[in-house]
Amino acid sequence: MLENKNQEKTDLESLGEFGLIDHLTQQFTIEQKSTIKGIGDDAAVLDFKDNKTIISTDLLIEGVHFDLSYMPLKHLGYKAVMVNLSDIYAMNAKATQITVSLAVSNRFPLEALEELYAGIAMAAKIYNVDLVGGDTTSSQTGLIISITAIGEAKDKDIVYRSGAKENDLLVVTGDLGGAYMGLQVLEREKAVYQVNPNNQPDLEPYSYIVERQLKPEARRDVFDLFQKLEVHPTSMIDISDGLSSEILHLCKNSKVGCNLYEDKIPLDPTVISACEEFGIDSTLVALSGGEDYELLFTLDQKEFPKIKGNPNLTVVGHMTAENEGAHLVSRNNSKIPLTAQGWNSFAKT
Amino acid sequence: MLENKNQEKTDLESLGEFGLIDHLTQQFTIEQKSTIKGIGDDAAVLDFKDNKTIISTDLLIEGVHFDLSYMPLKHLGYKAVMVNLSDIYAMNAKATQITVSLAVSNRFPLEALEELYAGIAMAAKIYNVDLVGGDTTSSQTGLIISITAIGEAKDKDIVYRSGAKENDLLVVTGDLGGAYMGLQVLEREKAVYQVNPNNQPDLEPYSYIVERQLKPEARRDVFDLFQKLEVHPTSMIDISDGLSSEILHLCKNSKVGCNLYEDKIPLDPTVISACEEFGIDSTLVALSGGEDYELLFTLDQKEFPKIKGNPNLTVVGHMTAENEGAHLVSRNNSKIPLTAQGWNSFAKT
């Protein structure tokens, strides 16, 4: 996990809870005008003036959401922030603050938490969000990360899941399936490593999809893109569980149906070749893979000229009447009902 | 944990993540004007208009912060909310919303989570806060609860840890040490039960302190009391770790010292008798016991007439120059330096 396995490690116990918080958070500065009081009191104080306050929270559990055997702690810290910011951007809002709570077992030395916080700090700096609070405690087993992201938006800019209308276009940012295929590569290499620890994996051909898994980026740029293009989505959600599950969320909340066209789903060539290598259907990966943190939104057809040809945006379908249901229109033109095959963390595998 | 151990249990897996969230949150309604959008989107949307937004977060871990062998799940849900609201009240703010994230292992049936949410719902109703978001996932071992509390306050009303001045009075609400002694009673009864499961404990003589441990109340009333008495504390903190640790936080943040008078520390008669029974020093319990969720604040001496004789408030000392340090003035008039003996969750016990 750490670069130098021989360096001397510092026990968390020697710092105590308050010392640990002070130590880990000293690198964070306040950059947002809306942050009145950050870390160091019972609560943070924020001032959004005429803007609305946007709040989202996520809990990441070792062994369920991440595997430290191939996820470097710095990447994990970065990704944990991305997962949360993605929810704020999915409201078409600006992310402004985060709180980070950690539970760690004694098997983690201070240096491991420093790595984790280095990733959190990097994400906070790049995405311009202030760390304003949190909690640090012990766990009896693994690492637990709980992040709350806070943002702000003008009332007129906020995009809910519930505004999609019949005939609206269904649009996705970026490409899909990369994070899932990156995970397949990492899990295969882990299995190889367990058999022969001297085997050095060559991840170079998979660098795009491995990075999609280990260091995803939330689509902050899409907020600016919408402003620039002067488009206003009618509904939006981030793609954390897979395209299929997210489409069903939009349909349910907006009381509409949907036709998704298989041949329109944007896939990176690396994803397609990895799918061939692993013998997995690439459409299934895009539909159910998850963790891509792209945005899925609907748009009035009248706005199509504004997004036409934009390399960041792909029209993948259109919304229909609710009673028509949500379907995948396959390459051979058959209609297959979409099902929420999103990852079920309660499945007893 | 559940009233009827023989009733049929429902697997979490059969509901899936989204079904579970829907099921558990259907009992919650939106009561706060500031809640524009609660559960059911990527993030919640809140509107605090001219008021400041207050945010606090806490993480509670099974085996570290609670023991389900004597903590009923409904009480746990209630207490988890209290722990967080207490931080908002400690800013002299009004609590308005919460988010609740849970990680549970498969050993919990749906009915157990319903109990937990019944406690959360009761707390939300009594304290008038809206549940506006969260996350529900699996854990490989125990139960993990992460709550973020959100509140609002007028700028002029907010009380930080940093405003205490030399000669200010140090004031505590309610009485101290009850939660810790309640825990001692519960742990003793657990040990007795483990030896002889037929032994029915008589907790009646300890009902006050057991309730302080299992069902603490956050001091929402103090905000109203301050308004009524027209007092404005110069600094404030909630007593979660113990009086000693909290005083040191105020001193450090306000750059002052403190004299705390042992004979002024408010103790309930039940705490005193339990301390005698267990052979524990009651002052030590108040200083280091924690979990009382009372408020500790400082007040300009000129305001003393306004609080004099108020049964909710006890003057326990006064602030001094920073270089005088923070001391307990004992009953025999010796000065003992205060140390942060707050519970260290990283201690390898």
Overview of the structural elements:
The structure is a homodimer of 349-residue chains. With 349 residues, chain A is an alpha+beta fold. Chain A has two domains: 12-156, PurM-like, N-terminal domain (60s Ribosomal Protein L30, Chain: A), CATH 3.30.1330; 169-337, PurM-like C-terminal domain (Phosphoribosyl-aminoimidazole Synthetase, Chain A, domain 2, Alpha-Beta Complex). The first copy, chain A, is 32% helix and 23% strand. The first copy, chain A, has ten helices and 13 strands. Chain A has a seven-stranded mixed β-sheet with strand order 8-10-7-11-9-12-13, with helices on both faces. The first copy, chain A, has a four-stranded mixed β-sheet with strand order 3-6-4-5. In chain A, a hairpin with a 6-residue loop joins β1 and β2. Chain A is globular, with a radius of gyration of 21 Å. Residues 1-6 and 342-349 of chain A have low confidence and may be disordered. Chains A and B meet through α1, β2, β3, α2 and β4 of A and α1, β2, β3, α2 and β4 of B.
The percent range for helix content of chain A is 25-40%
Q: Widest sheet of chain A: strand order?
A: 8-10-7-11-9-12-13
Give the CATH H-level superfamily of the largest domain in chain A.
PurM-like C-terminal domain
Largest interface: A-B, 79 and 79 residues
- Along the chain, the helix and strand elements of chain A come as HEEEHEHEEEHHHEHEHHEHEEE
Distance between the termini of chain A: 27 Å
CATH topology of the largest domain in chain A: Phosphoribosyl-aminoimidazole Synthetase, Chain A, domain 2
| CATH top-level class of the largest domain in chain A | Alpha Beta
Binding site for Mg(2+) 4 (chains A, B): 42, 56, 87
GO molecular function (chains A, B): ATP binding; magnesium ion binding; thiamine-phosphate kinase activity
EC number (chains A, B): 2.7.4.16
Family (chains A, B): Belongs to the thiamine-monophosphate kinase family.
